[in-house]
């Protein structure tokens, strides 16, 4: 089953700009979907990441998402958003505890889910009181709230955090905030190749009954530091062995 991500434009290091002509966008999308016939269409990638992937506002994104979902649904294809960045999902989940008056739980969740360098940056910026953090949270909430009315069938998120309890809390938050069932078209590892993380996260995905999950398997040097399941010659790494063993055992 193909989960197909389609971007309006952009490329490596170049964020997408929203379609200037939605009718032309829909016609192009029709030809793409007719050719590839995916199970699900994911509209853009990490739409909250303005510098890397999507330069438009949440309202511009939802206009694009609505147009794309109309085309997808007319062909019996499911539709979802591009996938919120892993660290933003953690931040939004922690903020939900803050909004309920539980500052300790919010702080504990940030410590649990942020790498040391991310947490240090968060603290130096002023934590939850930082205007930059407040802006990220508000933008993330606006994106989530508009997805269902735009026609999305799922709330799509990305996840690189090892802690499975945190994953469960994040899914609970996303589903409650969006009114949609959660899925992930990008889950993986950053800066490590621990086989235990693969097994435990995959088991949690099964326990949560996420309808779709795609493991990210590329080495991405620099930003994020994502790690593949494979060596460059195609042989499996220990985390890759854990992946296929889990699949063989469960499916």
Would you mind describing this structure in some detail?
The chain is globular, with a radius of gyration of 18 Å. It has helices at residues 22-36, 58-74, 86-99, 103-113, 116-124, 131-150, 164-178, 195-208, 238-250; strands at 3-6, 40-43, 78-81, 154-159, 181-187, 189-190, 213-215, 226-227. The protein has a 3-stranded parallel sheet, covered by helices on one side. A 3-stranded parallel sheet has the order 4-5-7. It has 251 residues and is of the alpha/beta class.
Largest sheet, in brief, is:
3 strands, parallel
Distance between the termini: 15 Å
CA radius of gyration is 18 Å
Arrangement of strands in the largest sheet: 1-2-3
Count all strands and give the number.
Answer: 8
Percent range of helical residues: 40-55%
Shape: globular
Structural class: alpha/beta
Task: Sketch the topology as an H/E string, one letter per element.
Answer: EHEHEHHHHEHEEHEEH
Mean pLDDT: 97
Give the uncertain stretches in residue-range form. Answer: none
Number of helices: 9
Question: Which percent band covers the strand fraction?
Answer: 5-15%
